[in-house]
Amino acid sequence: MRNLLPAFVVAATAAFPAFGQQQDFSKVEIKTTRVSGNVFMLEGAGGNIAAIVGDDGIVMVDAQYAPLAPKIHAALAKLSPKPVRFLINTHFHGDHTGGNAEFADTAAIIASTNVRKRLENGSVHPLTGKPIPPAPAAALPIVTFDSPTVLHIDGEEIRAIALRPGHTDGDSAVWFVKANVVHLGDDFVTYGFPLVDVANGGSVKGMIDALDELLARIPADAKIIPGHGPLSTVADARKFARSLEEMLAAVAKAKKPVGVEVLAPWAPWGQGFIKAEQFLPMLLRDAK
Ligand SMILES: [Zn+2]
């Protein structure tokens, strides 16, 4: 069953061009879904947002793109009149942090140490290698962490968990313990072959290990918010990790030099944002 086309590949591709800097956001609508308790998932363009609302204010995970901030504010206002008090970034990519500065007037931005480093110093685009300029000061996380960090708000325990390098070298998952919801950032995406940002410290093997380590710690019935794609389950994320593992194994045992045909069994995965020709070099770095 591993080569079934992830159902939303086509839709997700439209929502995920190269970090969307030139994208037209005027037509984007923010769709809000209640996940569990007071935890909501907001979909627009770019990475999925998680938000928990309550009397103490709103805690948001990821911020999509800056031009979408007014629409995100409007969507949140329908849930609560309270301000966003904390914004946690799952990693530094612009489709997750582009809106940071637009929330910084009320929100303390929280992320792993490497997110701040890459936003502050600039980085390189994972696919084009072009420089990404430093982010404005207001967009930088003011609280950084490298080990699990917990927010206690409105009776909820929100654990921001720094993961080993996988999608990038600054990934975190965010676990709403009481609501039983986990935002996995881009270590789990549903658009087909994942983008693994090797230029910024990522690795396929690391992504698999990070997922395995985290999924072993959370309840089997937790609801999973992927970095991109619809609400998912722990089983979906496990299946994704196993598929990546099978791809790595296939590449490791293939005759050298390894050609793109090694990924033929997963051809449907290449109909998303990342093509087989782009994913193969990411696998080759770890296939030993
Ligand atoms: Zn990303």
Number of strands: 15
What name goes with the CATH superfamily?
Answer: Ribonuclease Z/Hydroxyacylglutathione hydrolase-like
Q: How many domain regions?
A: 1
Largest sheet composition:
7 strands, mixed
| Top-tier CATH class | Alpha Beta
Count of individual helical segments: 8
- Please give the radius of gyration in angstroms: 18 Å
Order of helices and strands: HEEEEHEHHEHEEEEEEEHEEHH
Strand content: 15-25%
Work out the helicity level.
25-40%
* CATH architecture descriptor name: 4-Layer Sandwich
Q: Which compounds are bound in this model?
A: zinc ion
> What is the overall pLDDT average?
93
CATH topology: Metallo-beta-lactamase, Chain A
* Poorly predicted sequence stretches spanning 5 or more consecutive residues: 1-18
Global morphology: globular
Structural class: alpha/beta
Description:
This protein is of the alpha/beta class. The chain has one domain: Metallo-beta-lactamase, Chain A (4-Layer Sandwich), CATH 3.60.15.10. It is built from eight helices and 15 strands. It has helices at 9-14, 69-77, 94-97, 100-103, 113-121, 204-215, 234-253, 276-284, and strands at residues 31-36, 39-43, 49-54, 57-61, 84-88, 108-112, 123-124, 131-132, 143-145, 149-153, 156-162, 172-176, 181-183, 223-225, 232-233. The strands form three sheets. A seven-stranded mixed sheet has the order 1-2-3-4-5-6-9. Strand 7 and strand 8 form a beta hairpin. The chain is globular and about 60 Å long. The protein starts with 8 loop residues before the first helix and ends with a helix. Residues 1-18 have low confidence and may be disordered. Zinc ion binds at residues 91, 93, 167, 186.
